[in-house]
Amino acid sequence: MSNKDSSQQIVIRKSNELIEARYRLTLEEQRLVFLLSSVIRTDDEDFKDYEIRVSDFVQMFGLEKRKAIYKAVEEAARELSGKKIDLSRDGRKIFASWLSYVEYVEGSGVVKLRFDKSLKPYLLQLKDCLHGFTQYNLATVINFKSTYSIRLYELLKMEVWKAEKSRRTQFEKTFEIEEYRQILGVDKKSYPIFADLKKRVIEPTVLEISKQTDLNVVETKYIKTGRKITGIMFLVKIRQTDEIQTLQL
Question: In the chain, fewer beta carbons within 10 Å around the N or the C end?
Answer without folding.
Answer: C
